[in-house]
Design brief:
The structure is a homodimer. The two termini of chain A are about 50 Å apart. The first copy, chain A, is built from 15 helices and 28 strands. In chain A, helix 1 packs parallel to helix 4 and helix 2 packs across helix 3. By secondary structure, chain A is α+β, with helices and mostly antiparallel strands. A 7-stranded mixed beta sheet of chain A has the order 6-5-13-14-15-12-16, with helices on one face. In chain A, strands 21-20-26-23-22-27-28 form a 7-stranded mixed beta sheet. Among the domains of chain A are: about 240 residues, FAD/NAD(P)-binding domain, CATH 3.50.50; about 170 residues, Phenol hydroxylase, C-terminal dimerisation domain (Glutaredoxin), CATH 3.40.30. Chains A and B meet through helix 3, strand 4, strand 12, strand 21 and strand 24 of A and helix 3, strand 4, strand 12, strand 21 and strand 24 of B.
């Protein structure tokens, strides 16, 4: 279904293993797990103190319910706008300290990069480099033997590798980003959502939310908040979803999995590699080594346990999980020294019909102002490590749209595209998860071929390897809409498809000859980008196509930059114009290209030279080749969430002029 | 003198541009300079508050005087040992906010990596990629023209590139590292050193220091601290040096330079590149672009100004500096919008005879307990950007030695090697600076050849390019001593010379197939390392040389690991044993090699699998080739400051057994 759906794969040769070199081999949790920053001895062993709890304001632009990954990514995105009043409420009394999800896909790290803190994740995380498959020995089926050890190819799909890290640390980085951002946002803990009423959409703050405090000094105290928008990031048992009378549909609890984070001694040789172990009669285990060099996560498939252990999850103890894992790993042994965290999952594939209080199909009746995100609208198994990632991608899709509407740059109709785009992604996710779950528990009888040649790859193994592209999160492909337009010029940028995220490639910044990733210039700051890939003409020639494009964008009355930038705002504050030349960085004088490419900005009218790039010819990385950009050049419009919106020819002024009219509000009335 | 002194250069082909790809193009200071973390809006525009000032204790192990780069690196190093009582006192009322040094060499970033925060520097810093040379136009000598634009080759000497960043930010990272470390060290501000007496060395705390407080609530209050060791990191006018009656010798103030950090608008095309500009008659300017994309530093040579500006530095104003810079850049113009910081340097090449109260030559009379470090014992011009770097390297040399003596691992004689090693480095530095200063102000008359062929490279240009190796800080080569032994086996590791720092190279960690830098495993944690490069034998064979070496280290009574590790300490707590195999990571089962290579440690006796490495064959990086390691294998002993101590054959047990006897104290009495 999803695999092979990647026509640009040929362009993506084994790039960018290099970034791994940067990273440090941090070791910690040696003498036991301690929550918090592993490098900060002030935090070791201390439970973080619940912050001082402020009162909620009477009215906010956005009220986020729930401090999970979806809620925090949304909060981190909105906190970048000082002119948006956001609050995030949470039932718990403070941040989580351990456990839960741990897989972080390449695309998620790209988003962290856009939010400004990916280097912290890369420093602490464990990198999943190798994957091993183990099956029962056909000669001695009570033993397991390694079938394959394979270097994981995931980072061919992104400049960032797939890593694993405690969800609590991801939360911590997001909380830091929120707190440091212009809006200086901190969560409001100890808050239970009681009720919600959606009023007249003519009202500036149409959603009224009733909340109860649970902190000791204010227990039972009620608060009422009026909000322009409410976003339910409150998990699989979402109160926001229930208050909207929306239901989850699908299979419930068809599989039971035990999960535990352990410190242990073992002679199993792949304990530091991702390992999939299918025993003959004792069930299956998935091993995920974790950050710090010693911690390891075990997923134990419970419905493959012996009859005697086949009990409801309520009776499962961690000792039973450990015993089962030990039997599955035979002849290897495990000696568990500390159970850091454990849980039992009973989660099926479920999906909510609607992702907002008004669905795109009902757009005639108005625009949505209550949304649900992440586990609140889709649940699935934890096996592929996708839950936290897809939830964060949901809210990264929604965040810039809310910001753009609240700031008056886009009309509220834009908000329908959240459900339009993300519900389709959730459907794909559930289909993937069903397929994977089936394969994972499938028990193939060793055939004649296997007895002759030794163990061979199972279907699961083949599937897992192919599935890497999907798990990396980079196959997400939004359908055409007002903000994703197939213009018929795809041949001009074969590796940059509308609907997919802009796949970064190295370039050199003209001003200082620094090799950087072009994609890293696409910060999560709410801005659209017009990225012009120039043709071979001399860009300092005023008759060149790139000069004329700059002239159009600067001066023409139809220029979207003129039309949609508020008076008094920096010229790049709504739509940023970036240029990639074909010449090397030694061959162009940055003062001689069109001055609109490095426009004066800010209080001092300093010129911004950070918008001009060249291919990294010295290192053999020509972005034109890597991303299939035609030598006659083109324009790539990217959305504020880094997804490609459209590909146009360099002189496609008319289409460029009208592209933004679908959703944006002219500012220079 | 120093150039060409790099016999292993041939091994160092253009490695590791890749790490640049990782970094982000951060932009800030657009609307004016703000001190503090540029990503933290809570700090913007606020002066950091002076922390609460605690009383000094009566006795400490180490008292550091001065919170400059030398003092802070020493403090960050010592703070990693919870069992050492360190305090650092500072005359100022809080951390510096701007100005001063900005160049950070590759070797300094290696040290930051060893201290745990190099990724923060790399994220914020500006990377000096290109260097341009400008001279007067021979046709129109009132104008300058570009002679050359060259991509800077500095990072061929280190895995880290030369960068520039405000000294205040470097301090901030060091202060963070101190505060987060096990000793949780914070500076004691508002402290003036008044007097110091060095008493009987039989006394546990022989140095008595008198300090006066200057904070408003305690102004004039005196404190007396007894210290085992005092380290003067108090700059060119060092009080510690004066109290030791030591004098600086050399040229004083033979050149005057103006320096300013500016936000400006200009049409000079290389404003974002390091640029050296030699005008015909108006003097010379060195331009260093800085972090954030807009800030730029100008060094203006004052004694090349016109007669009318030739005044003492006391009369120089920033307006005069700006006017001079403008004339030198003609026909380009500068329009300065903000002067962030400026200063005038009148510094000559000066060196102190002694670096401690007892010099190595007087070792018969006892061991030193007062040291001076950095500018307190050597000063020179700021042109090569070496001052901050060499000062930090001074204290990185001293830190582990103090720690080892205080913790009872080494005898106090070790401390003589600080002056022995670092005074020679300071002499080299001053020679380099004299040569560079002469060339920099040399004004060559354009010759006939130049008129024919256009401008040609000057001697300065040739020298600057060659000098990159020196400026990278990686040529430092300590002379033979008890801790640096030329054993006659250098052919076994041609790229890893005793006395030079261990030059890192990529490897793959066996346990998880992760590509990492081997050098990054050499943390600044006070540990010596025995790094064994294996031969091609099967390492799981108990007859192999590497197995026998592990057996020797684990069991022999002469094993330095047995001899020098305190009872009850982890087996790797004093000397760590690391192994690099020749086989690829798929070809070795980590459970089948000698168990001493992944020893049980800590409260849980977890096995530490982070000590086993393989060549990175998949990426074409074979450390044996890159570092000239003989295929018959060898042992490389590295010091706690990452310098290579000795190279031995794999079976050189006897030399290995005796190597540590020179300075270390047996623990298993």
């Amino acid at each position: 279904m999803l695999l092979g759906d990647n026509p640009a794969t040929l362009l993506f040769d084994g790039l960018y293993l290099e970034h791994l070199r940067e990273s440090i081999a941090m070791q910690y949790y040696f003498n036991g797990f301690k929550p918090g920053d592993p490098t900060d001895f002030r935090e070791r062993g201390h439970r973080l103190v619940t912050p001082l709890l402020a009162d909620l304001p009477e009215a906010v632009d956005v009220l986020i319910v729930g401090c999970g990954p979806a809620g925090l990514v949304l909060a981190a995105q909105l906190a970048r706008f000082a002119d948006i009043r956001t609050r995030i409420v949470e039932r718990k009394s403070g941040p989580i300290m351990k456990g839960q999800a741990d897989g972080i896909s390449g695309r998620s790290i790209e988003i962290f990069q856009a939010l400004g803190f990916e280097e912290r994740v890369q420093k602490e995380a464990h990198f999943l480099e190798a994957i091993t498959f183990w099956r029962h020995d056909t000669e001695r089926p009570e033993n397991i033997v390694r079938v394959t050890k394979k270097i994981d190819g995931r980072n061919v799909f992104s400049q960032f590798h797939h890593v694993v890290l405690n969800q609590a640390r991801v939360h911590h980085f997001l909380l830091d980003a929120m707190r440091k951002a212009p809006a200086q946002l901190v969560p409001d803990y100890c808050r239970n959502l009681l009720d919600m009423q959606v009023g007249d959409s003519d009202d500036n703050y149409p959603v009224r939310v009733m909340i109860e405090r649970t902190d000791p000094d204010h227990e039972g105290q009620k608060e009422t908040v009026a909000a322009r928008y409410v976003v339910g990031c409150d998990g699989a048992r979402s109160t926001v979803r229930q208050l909207l009378n929306l239901e989850m549909r699908g299979d419930s609890a068809n599989k039971v999995w035990g999960v535990m984070d352990l410190l242990l001694v073992t002679d199993f040789p792949d304990i530091r590699n991702k390992s999939i172990i299918q025993s003959a009669n004792e069930g299956n285990v998935l091993i995920i080594p974790r950050e710090g060099g010693h911690l390891v996560r075990f997923y134990v498939e419970m419905d493959k346990l012996k009859e005697s252990e086949r009990v409801s999850s309520r009776n499962i103890t961690v000792d039973k999980l450990i015993a089962a894992a030990g039997r599955i790993l035979h002849p290897y042994t495990i000696d568990v020294k500390e159970v850091v965290w454990w849980s039992v999952y009973e989660i099926g594939q479920r999906l909510c019909d609607a992702f907002a209080n008004i669905s795109p199909e009902d757009a005639d009746s108005g625009q949505p102002n209550v949304f649900i995100v992440g586990d609140a609208c889709h649940t699935h198994s934890p096996k592929a490590g996708l839950g936290m990632n897809v939830s964060m991608h949901d809210s990264f899709n929604l965040g810039w749209k809310l910001a753009s509407v609240i700031r008056g740059h886009s009309s509220p109709e834009l908000l329908h595209t959240y459900a339009g785009e993300r519900r389709a992604i959730a459907e794909e996710l559930l289909a993937f998860d069903r397929e994977l779950a089936t394969m994972f528990s499938e028990q193939e009888v060793a055939g004649a071929k296997e007895r002759e040649n030794g163990p061979v790859a199972t279907k699961l193994q083949e599937y897992m390897v192919k599935a890497d592209a999907y798990v990396s999160g980079t196959l997400t492909h939004y359908a055409p809409s007002q903000i994703t337009v197939e213009s018929g010029h795809q041949h001009l940028a074969r590796g940059l498809e509308p609907g997919k995220r802009f796949y970064s490639s190295p370039v050199v910044r003209l001003s200082d000859a620094r090799p950087i990733h072009l994609g890293h210039a696409l910060e999560a700051d709410g801005r659209w980008r017009i990225i012009a890939f120039s043709n071979p003409e001399d860009p300092t020639d005023s008759l060149s196509a790139i000069w004329k494009l700059a002239d159009f964008l600067e001066k023409a009355s139809e220029s979207p930059i003129r039309k949609y930038t508020p008076a008094g705002g920096d010229v790049d504050s709504v739509i940023e114009f970036l240029v990639v030349f074909q010449q090397g960085s030694r061959d162009i004088n940055m003062q001689d290209v069109h001055a609109f490419m490095s426009p004066p900005k800010g209080a001092y009218r300093l010129r911004d030279y950070n918008k001009l790039f060249c291919p990294d010819l010295d290192n053999g990385d020509d972005i034109f080749d890597k991303r299939g950009i035609d030598r006659e050049g083109c324009i790539v419009i990217t959305r504020p969430d880094q997804h490609v919106a459209s590909v146009l020819p360099l002189d496609g002024y008319e289409t460029l002029a009208t592209f933004f009219d679908g959703t944006m509000i002219p500012q220079n009335k």
